[in-house]
Amino acid sequence: MTLAPERIHISPTAPHVTEPTHVEATHHALNTRLSVGGGLQRTHPPKKSGKPNPMAHLTNTEIEQIGLDLDAMRAEVMQSRGARDAAYIRRVIAIQRGLEMGSRVVLLFSRNKAAWVVGTVGLSLAKILENMEIGHNVLHGQWDWMRDPKIHSTTWEWDMASPAKQWQHSHNELHHTYTNVLGRDNDLGYGLLRVDEDQKWELFHLGQPLWHLVNAMFFEYGIAAYDLELRGNLQNWDQLSDDDKAAFKAQAWAMAHKIRRQATKDYVVHPLLSGPSLVPTLLANFTANVVRNVWSNTVIICGHFPDGIDTFETDSIDGETRGEWYLRQMLGSGNISGGTLTHVLSGNLSHQIEHHLFPDMPSNRYAEIAPKVRALMERHDLHYVTGPILKQAYQVYKKVCVLSLPNKEPGRTRRSVVAAELRKIVKGKGAARTKRHLPSTV
Amino acid sequence: MTAAPPRPVPARRPGIADGMWKVAAAIATPILPDDYLDLIAPLRSGADLRGRIVAKRRESADAATLVIKPGRSWAGHLPGQYIRIGIDIDGVRHWRAYSLTSRTSDPTISITVKAIPDGLVSNHLVHHATPGTLVMLDQASGDFVLPSTLPETILFVTGGSGITPVMGMLRNLPAPTPGRPAPDIHLIHSAPTPSDVIFAADLAALAASGRVHLTVRHTDTDGMLDLADLDALVPDWRTRQAWVCGPTGLLDAAELHWAAADLTDRLHVERFRPTIIEPGEGGEITFLDSLITVDADGATPILDAGEDAGILMKSGCRMGICFGCVAVMRQGAVRDLRTGEITVAEPGDELSIQTCINAVAGSCDLEL
Predict the structure, then answer these.
(1) Is the backbone of residue A308 left (phi > 0), alpha (psi -120 to 50) or beta?
(2) Which of B245, B271, B297 is the last residue of a domain?
(3) Would you call B30 and A25 a contact, using CB atoms and an 8 Å cutoff?
(4) Which CATH number does the domain housing residue B165 bear?
(5) Contacts of A20 (CB under 8 A, 6+ apart)
(6) Closest CA of chain B from A209, distance in Å
(7) Domain count of chain B?
(8) pTM
(9) What gap in Å lies between CA A161 and CA A163, rounded to an integer?
(10) pLDDT for A146-171, tens place per residue?
(11) Are B289 and B230 in the same domain?
(12) Could you report the per-residue pLDDT of A88-131, keeping only the tens digit for each?
């Protein structure tokens, strides 16, 4: 017997009280990603660029075994989540809030150079922690298991231009489901950069060594535009249905509202409170936002664009099993090596491979499974990409520069391809960028 | 949660404080000033209701009283009412309801908890919870209370931990005055053995002082109470207002007994029993917004079953990674199709579940 009184009026939990309508459900073809095995017999043709398909050497049985091993790895960690993990995230949140408010108080006196430096460094770190180890991971549902409504994927809002809900759709759903699938995963260059030889070259990409740097500085707004699918929606405005137009307007409005609140905080209220330190505080907040943007951009580009990470053809994921999906996550992601501070400040996206395998696993547990994931990949002759952050970021920048030019074509120099595109523009028959089609969300 | 009355609306702040609060909100965005204050003053007025365990007392071999200092939003209680308490166990928050046993005039509140076999929360509270722990609370609720004008004669019939709300009432009896004599109270309490009697010392003291006529029955040796014996134990039971609290069997018997005597309006019952939700395979999914139920098998994701029935479902990756389909389960059980893990929501719970990878396991009620 327990002391829990049975509550008689449990509305609206009502089937016993009112008579609900019964509906017979028809049977549904289940999503193939709900099972690890039973994949299609696939041929693995090389990609358009001539690169081999990275999965070609594995049989379906081997892929299924990889899936079972990873499922077991996940279960072991998820079943051992407990008070220690809960204390970890609460501690990080408390540190972040203390750091943020402490830095803002110091910045009230930012006319003093030392106060400006201390406050700006503190606020930058606070914003980084807030976005990476806390916001990104809470919004992935990594902490939903605690059943604390204050630390929950459905209630969290973060210090970012993009409202949490919109980002969750484009990131959690589209990017994490279709990771590195050409034409499906917009994170491959964010619609701005060409980061893979199998992406089509356009004249616009000539400027990408610069676009990349500007995007890094103002990354949160780039993400916001990307979450809205701003370019695709505006270019295809006439073809959108009324419902789509209304949905887009509602999202754009929500985003404008969020950006206004964010800007009011950093660029109006906090500077005004600083009185004679108004201008230095405004600059400090701008600096902290840029530092956070550049850092998060750097971490994220290191997750999918360095050398040795694979992309996948659009039709290669038809009927994909969870085993095949796991495989694509491992081959489509790369890690950053480093110490505890790197891991925490990157939101443990330094363990990008582990994060992509198990996006809802608490981030503080990725480090413990990383050696097992690496061993599994090496056992199956799969390349575990990892390296120090500067090395990885340099590789990406080099790639952005190289791929700003078209691929070599037989019988044509890169220069002649560029020149031909330029001539089209001059004659008015082409565009620097092709019209962007709205990605299917199905 | 019907047990939770709406949160108290913070008193309207005067102009200047209101303005300062708006500035604080503009600086704190995207979170709230409250989120910062919660870190330093979780029990302050205006905060979500919380409490801190300040003491723990053993009541019997497997029962303990927890003394809790409630936050300043605490609105008080009536003797006999219960509260819901949310406590983190292994990092996971669990909510349960317990009767209040403290005096309404105390600055602290008390609940008395009996550890039941396999009871996660009750065992934690009795054996592991320590003073200093912060817990979530709901305001008091329940209508198992004495009227403001006490009847002249009262009968209490309790079993096991059913004594707890009655002890809450007994501790709060007003002192008799010349114009208002103390009511004549008869309490019949059943427990398996002497060591199972919660509040044994308090009950003995009440009996010794003459305020309560006490009959304690040890059911392991004396057998279960038969209500037909009431005529012998309390010959005037028919004229008394009666409050009965205990196991379901006792309550059902009491309702029949009083109904047979055509005295239903004199009987007040509080049902104490474990809410047992037995997970099964497949079952009925009820969508509470449209009050549509769907029968689904144990292999069909709730998302698919809902869509097939024409419910407007939130959806995303359909493989359990994006949390775009999360919905609130009010009660029932679901099974994770990937791992076999069962999630159970007891009445009063609001559990988030992913509909794309969970199948109904018995039945479930969803806010969709």
Answers:
(1) left
(2) B271
(3) no
(4) 3.40.50.80
(5) A14, B286, B291, B292, B293
(6) 32
(7) 3
(8) 0.92
(9) 7
(10) 999 999 999 999 999 999 999 999 99
(11) no
(12) 999 999 999 999 999 999 999 999 999 999 999 999 999 999 99
